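Why does residue order matter? Because the sequence determines the fold. Keep that principle in mind as you read this record.
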Amino acid sequence: MIRPSPVFLGIVGVAVLGGVLTALANQDDYYTFDGPGALAITGTVLLVLGGWAVSLCLHEFGHAWFAYRGGDKQVYFKGYLTLDPRRYTDPVLSIVLPLLFLLIGAIPLPGGAVWINHHALRSRATQSVVSLAGPLSNLVLGVLIAVVVSAVPMPVGLAAGLSVLALFQVLAFVLNILPIPGLDGWGAIEPWLSYEAQRFGAKVRPWAPLVLFALIIGVPQVGNTIFGWADDLYTTLGGSPLAVVGYDAFKFWNF
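Structure:
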């Protein structure tokens, strides 16, 4: 049933390569005022971007898997269970654009990727579960990474890169769980709303997330509030403060 594609395995390889480079980087590179060395920068960028691309695939796989279990068998024939981003509805919007947003603005943009036939799902509860499966996969992945960082001794560079990746997973969960049309949080409550509310959601779904991200970028109070929620949750889950070090290395090229 689950057949990871060569493309997905290649993405995993990029993340692993980044992890190796961060582990080999000089520890002092992560604490100097004028920024980390080239090896630390390269390793952190590859680790975070590769890891984020992996999480995007897992996010969409979560939607597809629970949809398959809930009655939509077409997701299998569409190749959604192969973890292959080429199978998605729009690979550019689903993979390329989120990676670009992450690289430029450190915003883990959710990607709309797999088409689910909600009419084939067994119940409203199943529809909610399918919608929640994506963001919950980000949260679970963030928790797992944070636990590994805290429990397994490792070089500071690798710990820093993994920590900022975990923070981005938590931030993606917080963003995508918001009850805004076009995001999974809305998808979870939509089956339980009135017909009028569902119609309204369908009308604003194409541009509502864009308005949200414009507010995050353009209105500091909005961005600071949402990022604050994510940071509080990350800390509550036991996330390492080395995320700050990893973030500085990841964003050094843009200073």
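The mean pLDDT is 89.
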